Amino acid sequence: MADASAQNDKVDVEEVPVPPAPDPTGKGRRKKMVNRTKLGNFNLDEDVNIVKSWLEISCDPITSTAKKKDRMWDRIVQQYNLRRGSYPERSLRSLQSHWDIIKAEVGKFSSFYADAIRENPSRMSDADKTTHATANFAGILKHNFAYMHCWEIMKDEPKWQDPKPRGFGKSTGGDGFGEDSSHEPDTSDLGDDNSSPTGSARRRPMGRDSAKAAKKKANSSAGSTSSSKYASRMQDLSLQKISILQEESMRKTDRFQQLACIDEKRFEEMRSHNQSLLDIEQEKIRIMCEKHDMDKQEKEKQEDERILGIDLNACTPAQRMYYEALQEEIFKKIAARRGKRWEKTGALNHGWERQPYLCFLDFISGN
Asked: Which portions of the sequence form the region Disordered (predicted)?
């Protein structure tokens, strides 16, 4: 049990370089000092973050086989720090050391779990198998399995699904495992049919070339499907656009016809209104002309009556001659008007065929 306590309470130590201070004697520089900062223990969330970051980077079938170890761990540290939240930042060395512990413990537990499956393949549930493997782990290794939260994530990976059975031969630690029991089983060991009774039925991880080919095939199929869907969608949109344009054209045509009818009706109303105004103005002008003629005739009549009413005997000889001439013109004018009326009333049938003036004089004199 002391071993489990030492593993779970491991204290992370960060080495922070301190720049060298100048020698006060001036004879040289002091040696470079290193400040060691103690960080808190890894908790469950940090364990889960390490496991997820390692699986995401190292289990990529396309790029993981071409990565160097240092470069791969640089990416694991970067991935870990992206989602560490408020937890302290861990160095690459610290994460590698803690991952080695998790990997070794989970590798041991996976062997106990595989034994539980082989011993009781059908009579036990998954929870019972896990409980049985945990009890065997604690009984044989003398400490509890402290990384069940990591096992729940790693158990579905091919590397930990069916490891080699535990060996009870020569062991360096007396825990029932061989030399490689503290390390994670390699993919080459998992692929060996003779290393495990279920090796032929075990699912092997996909290789780089197979993964690339599968990805290329999937992209090609997805691209073809996407192109077909895109073309179909574009055709539907084109038909919808044509239908919308036709409906819009019909609406515009109906609107133009309505506007044309409204304009025609409005023009007819304006023309009728203008004609009415014109007729009214013409009537006004006619009435004004008649009134003007009547006023003129009334003034002429008054002037004629004034001239005819002048006493010629009281006038001088010159005035007498002037007014006699005016009176004679007045008589001619009256006779002309009477003659026109007599022509209309049949006065000529009475034998008046002489000059209108003479007829008028005869009429006045009573002849």
From this structure: 1-30, 158-232
Transcribe 185-252 into DSSP letters. PPHHHHT-TTSSTTGGGSPPPPPHHHHHHHHHHHHHHHHHHHHHHHHHHHHHHHHHHHHHHHHHHHHH
pTM, entire model: 0.43
**H or E stretch including 277?**
helix 208-308
Question: In the 8-state DSSP scheme, what is residue 100?
Answer: H
Q: What is the pLDDT along the chain (367 residues), one digit of tens a residue?
A: 445 444 554 555 555 454 555 555 555 555 555 555 677 788 899 999 999 999 988 876 665 555 577 788 999 999 999 988 888 888 899 999 999 999 999 999 999 998 888 887 667 788 888 898 999 999 999 999 999 999 999 988 887 776 555 554 333 344 444 434 443 434 333 333 333 334 434 455 566 667 777 777 777 776 677 778 888 888 889 888 999 999 999 999 999 899 999 999 999 999 999 999 999 999 999 999 999 999 998 998 899 989 888 888 889 999 999 989 999 999 998 888 888 777 766 544 554 444 555 555 555 554 4
Query: What is the C-alpha to C-alpha distance for residues 283 and 277, in angstroms, rounded to an integer?
Result: 10
Sketch the domain layout of the chain as residue ranges.
Answer: 2-205, 312-367
Which tokens belong to 28? Answer: 């040289």
DSSP 157-190: SHHHHS-PPPP-SS-SSSSS--GGGGSPPPHHHH
The C-alpha atoms of residue 301 and residue 307 are separated, in whole angstroms, by 10
Transcribe 46-63 into DSSP letters: HHHHHHHHHHHHHT-TTT
Q: In one letter, which amino acid is 82?
A: L
What is the rounded distance in angstroms from the CA atom of residue 253 to the CA atom of residue 182? Answer: 86
Q: How far is CA 18 from the centre of its chain?
A: 54
Question: CA 364 to CA 345: how far, in whole Å?
Answer: 19
Max CA pair span of the chain: 186
3-state DSSP helix/strand/coil % of the chain, to nearest 5: 70, 5, 25
